[in-house]
């Protein structure tokens, strides 16, 4: 059996500066943050036969003692960071890659020392190219020295349960993941399918490398997955982070929270 959990890192507003500013709807007003997107950050932990799988690593936020919030959330589930066997990176923007590494006393160390980090080679090369300020190369330097990095190309399998697929769309070498044991099928679409609302209000986003491709892919992921009971992991969801399709009276599908 597969089981997924959100490792919720917080709610944020993001403006043209690409800074993630904490946003608490109980005390903060959207009117005070014009021209901003409002999102949440949900790395995901999945229990599989082959060990724990982590889908993206959040912003790398820490508590008052300097400990990764990602660590805290994993430990709340009864696990240790050393139990993570695979870190699946959809892409390397800072809100997805921040927790790949932990910095203690200004020294960077690989955050998941027993894990294999799965990254598309083209994405890795783009991260060092300077094409986008959303890449933090000081993180990648630590990962590169660790021996934990596995650069992949195109589509393939990590093991019999985990498959990676080069998608493009959000970044040129963005990838998605299927975690499937023949009974349960999780789909992680990264920032090509970051929230459930984008399935039904599909549009070409200006923040994507290829917005038209992302729009097309979202529709394909829904048309292929909804009739086959895929469970969707929505990284930036403000409503449903882990959702499953359910058929309505007219034969169409909508998303409900997966229990």
From TrEMBL:
PANTHER family, A to Z: 102 KBASES UNSTABLE REGION: FROM 1 TO 119443, QUORUM-QUENCHING LACTONASE YTNP-RELATED-RELATED
Record family assignment: Belongs to the metallo-beta-lactamase superfamily.
Gene source species: Sphingobacterium kitahiroshimense
Organism placement in taxonomy: Bacteria, Pseudomonadati, Bacteroidota, Sphingobacteriia, Sphingobacteriales
Protein name: MBL fold metallo-hydrolase
Cofactor(s) this protein cannot do without: Zn(2+)
InterPro entries (UniProt xref): MBL_superfamily_lactonases, Metallo-B-lactamas, RibonucZ/Hydroxyglut_hydro
Domain Metallo-beta-lactamase: 40-236
Keyword Zinc: yes
Keyword vocabulary terms for this entry: Hydrolase, Metal-binding, Zinc
Keyword Ubl conjugation: no
């Amino acid at each position: 059996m597969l089981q997924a959990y959100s490792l919720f890192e917080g709610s944020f507003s993001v403006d043209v500066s690409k800074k993630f500013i904490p946003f608490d709807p109980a005390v903060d007003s959207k009117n005070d943050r014009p021209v901003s997107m409002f999102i949440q950050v949900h790395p995901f932990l999945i229990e599989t036969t082959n060990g724990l799988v982590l889908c993206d690593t959040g912003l790398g936020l820490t508590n008052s003692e300097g400990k990764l919030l990602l660590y805290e959330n994993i430990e709340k589930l009864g696990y240790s960071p050393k139990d993570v066997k695979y870190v699946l990176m959809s892409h390397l923007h800072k809100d997805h890659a921040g927790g790949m590494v932990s910095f203690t006393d200004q020294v960077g160390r690989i955050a998941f020392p027993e894990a294999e980090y799965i990254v598309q080679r083209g994405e890795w090369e783009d991260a060092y190219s300077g094409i986008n300020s959303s890449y933090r190369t000081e993180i990648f330097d630590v990962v590169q020295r660790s021996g934990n990095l596995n650069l992949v190309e195109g589509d393939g399998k990590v093991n019999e349960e985990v498959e990676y697929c080069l998608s493009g769309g959000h970044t040129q070498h963005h990838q998605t993941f299927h975690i499937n044991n023949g009974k349960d099928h999780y789909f992680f679409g990264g920032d090509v399918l970051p929230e459930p609302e984008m399935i039904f209000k599909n549009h070409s986003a200006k923040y994507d490398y290829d917005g038209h491709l992302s729009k097309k892919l979202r529709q394909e992921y829904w048309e292929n997955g909804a009739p086959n009971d895929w469970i969707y992991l929505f990284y930036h969801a403000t409503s449903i982070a882990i959702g499953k399709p359910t058929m309505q009276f007219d034969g169409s599908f909508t998303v409900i929270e997966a229990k």
